[in-house]
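INFO  loader      accepted 1 record
INFO  loader      residues=215
INFO  predictor   begin
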Amino acid sequence: MQTNTQVPDPQLLKTKNKISETVKFPALFAEKKDLLMDALLAARLEMPVIFRSAKNSYTNSTYADLTDIITQAEPILLRNELLIVQTTYCESGVVYLQTRLVHSSGQSIASVVPLIPAKNDPQAFGSCLTYQKRYQICLIAGLVTGDDDGNAATYPSGAVSKPQLAELASAFKRNPDLLDPLLREFRIEKIADLPAKKHTKMMDRIKELVVIKKI
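INFO  predictor   done
INFO  writer      dumping tokens
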């Protein structure tokens, strides 16, 4: 009895192997993420701009250190049944940091970055690890950090123009649930107080949150 055995395409196998060696995690939406995304949206809508308290003496600037990020963001994430887990592993002599955002349902998303310290000593490695941990938390949870002086150094004094104000008002009319959270995020009392330079950023945030709501 003759069997019909399909011989795999060698080029296809080579391509699949190359992909499996390169990609550490499945695509963001390769698996169902609806419960996680609903929870992340809820957390993002109440998440404030992360206050910067750490001082960088070399650049005479402030930044949100790991303690700032965890103490301000973690209670909101936990309230929405979200947990950030960070671990390291070594592969081919390179240490990687894995950051995973996990929902109580078991759904999760993850990112991974190599840790490449400036020098080969424990202190440099520790600094590199801490730096990447806080940046990866901000990335995966969509956190925004702000200046410790009420954004005085970031926001210019000129407010939005009438056409910009009309565009924002129209966007919020279609998505009224986003108004209060974004006013808090941009630290303003009303749309008219938004600096003109931040108009595009706010419009982008509205579009981003609308997309998340539809997932």
